[in-house]
Amino acid sequence: MSTPDLNMLVTLNVLLTEGSVARAARKLRLSPSAMSRQLARLREATGDPLLVRAGRGLVPTPRALELRERVGQLVQHAEAALRPAEALDLKQLTRIFTLRTREGFVENFGAELIARIAEQAPGVRLYFTQKLDKDSAPLRDGTIDFETGVVGDDTGPELKTQALFRDRFIGVVRSGHPLSEGAVTSQLYAAGRHILVSRRGLQKGEIDEALGVLDLERRIATIVGSFSAALALARASDLIVSVPERYTGNLRTDMHSFALPVPTSDVTISLLWHPRMDADPAHRWLRGCIRDVCAGSRLQQSTGFEVG
To answer: CATH assignment of 90-167+268-296?
Structure first.
């Protein structure tokens, strides 16, 4: 059996990424005819046409779609292996890292993280951007360096993850609200008017299922897409909102928080990044900073009930 030409992996990666012989040729600085010959070799090696004509363009075959992510990772790992290792000098490091998060992360962890970075690597800057969805494409294409969130079935399977902290949901009302006096029972909780937080506009959630077991139903007055908007509404009205405790600590200042009278699942907030950055020394250092800040940040004792 002949030894495969591993240089073909680079060509295949560019072809599958660009989806065009002409664009791939320009990227690899080859003539269109030379790239066409390379595509013919790849077709022969894989036993698949890989790219087929559809109208005026080319579309990938199922085999090409299957290979695209695997080949990309192989090329990235090879490039990382052949890149010379350099000692990381934090004092001389000049770099901007982009971190995509939901509202609440910056308010609760941003100041301490920025202070730690300024002390260790004054030339490093953080760019925080809002997380509007769970699309993993920005991590894959390098638009962002990190994101925080809950790892689920829709998380890109190739992404690296690191648990930062566990969180639980609590109820929150304005100061002086009737629920701020005495124990909050499931009946009192269900009898109030509620704000449901859902970026996808869902009508019900886990809390509603737990209340249903008790033959109770809460009244949803409005649905909003963010914790900050929900807490602003609750602060200015008699509406009740349920939010993650640690993630919204500073957003709940001067409000009354209470333990939910029904069981809910804890959530684990994780840090996510693309594997191509896994071995990057500066990226690895910043991952450690984020992990340490989240682990060491003290939960504010403003909830009005014992923190477990």
So the answer is: 3.40.190.10
The pTM assigned to this predicted structure is 0.64
Task: Determine the Cα–Cα distance for residues 270 and 166; give it in Å rounded to an integer.
Answer: 9
Helix, strand and coil percent figures for the chain, each rounded to 5: 45, 20, 35
169-265 has which fold?
D-Maltodextrin-Binding Protein; domain 2 (3.40.190)
User: How far apart, in Å, are the Cα atoms of 205 and each of 133, 190, 208, 218, 230?
Assistant: 18, 14, 5, 11, 15
Residue 53: how many CB atoms within 10 A of its CB? 9
CA dist list (Å): 39 to 4, 156, 241: 15, 29, 57
Range with lowest mean pLDDT among 140-144, 151-155, 176-180, 260-264 = 151-155
Handedness of CA 140, 143, 145, 150 (dihedral sign): negative
In SS3 terms, 100-117 reads as EECCCHHHHHHHHHHHHH
Instruction: Provide CB contacts within 8 A for 23, sequence distance 6+.
Output: none
Fold topology of 7-82: Arc Repressor Mutant, subunit A (1.10.10)
Residue 192 has what DSSP assignment? Answer: S
Domain ranges of the chain: 7-82, 90-167+268-296, 169-265
Tokens (6 digits) for 108: 């609760």
Helices marked H in the chain: 7-18, 21-28, 32-46, 62-82, 105, 111-120, 137-141, 186-191, 206-213, 227-235, 281-296
- What tens digit of pLDDT does each residue of 133-151 get? 778 888 888 889 999 988 8
Note the pLDDT tens digit of each residue in 213-229.
Answer: 999 999 999 999 889 99
